[in-house]
Write a structure and sequence with these properties.
This protein has 330 residues and is an alpha+beta fold. It has three domains: 2-59, Winged helix-like DNA-binding domain superfamily/Winged helix DNA-binding domain (Arc Repressor Mutant, subunit A, Orthogonal Bundle); 66-273, BirA Bifunctional Protein, domain 2; 281-324, SH3 type barrels (Roll), CATH 2.30.30. The protein is built from nine helices and 14 strands. The strands form three sheets. Strands 3-4-5-9-8-7-6 form a seven-stranded mixed beta sheet, sandwiched between helices. The chain has a five-stranded antiparallel beta sheet with strand order 13-12-11-10-14, with no helix packed on it. A hairpin with a 4-residue loop joins strand 8 (186-197) and strand 9. It is elongated. It starts with a helix and ends in a 6-residue tail after the last strand.
């Protein structure tokens, strides 16, 4: 992997690079250089060669390749190990299988990433539309926290996504409790957090995200076309998925470090600043119960606080937000 990264570095630095130069810089034979070039071509890098000038890279693939992500990844451990797939049933499913391995085999911060999911899932087993052109990834964590921190992990993930989208595209997303990121009242991203835990300790945890990046409106399934949006649709151009993944992983690590130190105040305050829910009248389904009222706050455990019409204030740890009242609350 390191040799391929170094070859790509030199190819992108100059127009033409000789095989002799690469061999000397990398301490390998020219035959080994040629073999690495063939491997890059197999990964859909377009590289031409000239007898007197050497190799020249013409274009690179729009693929979420680990080499490309690592090259600009500014994290201490999140994303340092990446498993890449052209297609998976579900990145979370694969991540859970790997999370059951020993930590020295699958370290904390390991990322599972795929170009396409056949059976992507959202909360409550809902199907998640996951075509080529989006970002479908899962992060494996081993937090020394009790399960009551799970809602906060979902909150910090949504904050990291909003900040990453804003930094790369300038678009301000908002967070719909508990796990969606919205742009213009349409869903651009969803989060699915799953774990194995005992009464007071999380054994492992998988955070899955799906972001609609370079997906055209005509590609969305009929049933979600009116409620979904992509970054490409908003920006009117293709968005760098590599850069978005890099920025997200950096932000994710920053907020995760805060959380494991049990310093969640900053996370909660940022979530409130980006909230699409607080201040609105909502209907929430909790089990078989339907609760209506005004979303007034989120507490330090990540629970949504709802004030019912009779004045009673309820704490909602987990539920499904069914609808908003169209009239704003003053």
């Amino acid at each position: 992997m390191r040799i391929k990264q170094n070859i790509l570095y030199y190819l992108k630095k100059d127009n033409y690079v000789s095989g002799k130069f690469l061999a000397e810089k990398l301490g390998i034979s020219r035959v080994a250089v040629w073999k690495q070039i063939q491997k890059l071509k197999n990964l859909h890098y377009e590289i031409i060669s000239h007898k007197n000038l050497g190799y020249c890279i013409i274009s690179q693939p729009d693929l979420l390749l680990p080499d490309e992500i690592h090259k600009g990844l500014n994290t201490k451990y999140i994303g340092h190990k990446i498993y890449y797939y052209q297609e998976l049933e579900s990145s979370n499913l694969t991540a859970k299988e790997k999370a059951r391995s020993k930590r020295d085999v699958v370290p904390e911060g390991t990322v599972i990433i795929t170009e396409k999911q056949k059976g992507g899932r959202g909360r409550l087993g809902r199907k998640w539309f996951s075509p080529i052109g989006g970002i479908w990834l899962s992060v494996i964590l081993y937090p020394s926290l009790s399960p009551e921190y799970i809602p906060c992990i979902t909150l910090m993930t949504s904050v990291a996504i909003v900040r990453a989208i804003k930094e790369l595209t300038g678009i301000q997303g908002l967070i719909k409790w508990p796990n969606d990121v919205m742009i213009h009242d349409k869903k651009v991203c969803g989060i699915l957090t799953e774990m194995s835990a005992e009464m007071d300790l999380i054994n492992w945890l998988v955070v899955g995200i799906g972001i609609n990046v370079n997906i055209d409106r005509c590609e969305f399934a009929k049933e979600i076309k009116d409620i979904s949006i992509s970054l490409k649709e908003m920006t009117k151009k293709r968005v760098s998925r590599i850069q978005l993944v890099q920025i997200f992983l950096r932000e994710f690590e920053k907020y995760y470090n805060m959380l494991i130190q049990k310093e969640s105040t900053i996370i909660l305050n940022e979530w409130k600043n980006y909230s699409h829910t607080i201040g609105k009248r909502i209907d929430v389904k909790v089990g078989d119960r339907l609760i209506s009222g005004q979303a007034i706050d989120i507490n330090d455990r990540g629970a949504l606080m709802i004030k019912k019409d009779d004045g009673e204030i309820l704490e909602i740890i987990s539920g499904t937000l069914l609808k908003y009242n169209k009239e704003p609350n003053i």
